[in-house]
């Protein structure tokens, strides 16, 4: 495991859907997923400003009673929303920082893999809003999140 001073380990393997998205391939290849996302096993399968998808294993992300921790869903959601916002921001010569996230968990998961699908609600010049729906392996919605990112000048 890297020490606290070493960066995340880019380049991350870039899925073919990401490679065709303007800005997104460079973003993921240069910055990587981030240390927390790496530790939690989050894997991007799509990345663009409009739509991104990533998976996360239940194993290693559970609370003591055996359910996936609600905070893990929030990390998955923020990872997706922030990367999507930055895929938009990079095309404007800006970068995105999260200013709000909220989530409602409607089901629980004990094992397997969850999938987060992030969809743009608003892509502006100073702010983005994304909705993230997390589903279980049977496609049932288990959490819904919304993230707002502020776009800042480089």
TrEMBL record:
Instruction: Give the matching InterPro entries.
Output: HotDog_dom_sf, PAAI_dom, Thioestr_dom
Thioesterase domain span: 66-141
Q: Where is this region: Disordered?
A: 1-29
Q: Which Gene3D superfamilies match?
A: Hotdog Thioesterase
| UniProt KW keywords | Hydrolase
Task: Please indicate if the UniProt record lists Iron-sulfur as a keyword.
Answer: no
Please give the family membership noted in the entry.
Answer: Belongs to the thioesterase PaaI family.
Q: What is the protein name for this chain?
A: Thioesterase domain-containing protein
